[in-house]
Amino acid sequence: MAKLIINGENKDFENTVPATLTALLDALKVDEATVVAEVNGEIIPRSSFQNTILDDGHKIELVRFVGGG
Amino acid sequence: MTKLTTEQFEAMLIERHGQTVHQKLKSATVGIAGLGGLGSNVAVSLARIGIGKLVIADFDIVEPSNLNRQQYFVEQLGIEKVTALTENLSKINPYVKIEGHCLKLTSENIPEIFKHCPIIAECFDKAEQKQIIVETALNKTKSVIVAASGIGGYGKSNEILTQKISDRLILIGDGSRGLEAGFGLMAPRVAIAAGHQANAVVELILEN
Q1: Could you give the domains of chain A?
Q2: What ipTM, to 2 d.p.?
């Protein structure tokens, strides 16, 4: 078992956590173009989602936007 | 036409708000990114209470489809939103300073345009644009961002919330009802969200 802490809540994964931020958003079925992400307290630019490696226990904050203004 | 001098206008604001509050509002500069249903309403609220300066940015012109919720008039169709809103704000409060930028905001120009704004209201329409300004402002500026997401449809007034996500990000909205969910945008609910945004801005100004 491995876990990530997403927006303050534990999320368990069977073997390992998704390898990257992009893989996590894919698993959550969220369009990465609409997400501002923070990993362990650092804001990750969208262009770096793919290179952001995740590991067991990482703290992730995701803010997702929907259209309308 | 009746005119109010700057002294008369300020006296009215001081009578309403008190000297201390008035001075803080008058000293404040607020950025507004996007001048649609959210941005035009936020700007009108802040101009009415005597904000010192607004930095407003939008690349678009006023279109017929805007009139169901945005603070423009039929006679302004086809005019740049920056120009039209500047005109309307000046009629509400002739003494608010307005710096207008008619251009598309990008991750490159956002830090420069809003560099003198301790607070930025994110008022875009598209989710991807909201993402760009919030990410850029958090990463490349020191400003506090007041963003909005989930303001579509009608009813469910009490589901629109103001949430403090972090010291530098305040998020307004119901968290879900976007255009993607098939909800249209209508003046009442958009104005509720814009009211939350303007109110959060005032709170930041007065309590910091």
Answers
A1: 2-7+17-59 (3.10.20.30)
A2: 0.91
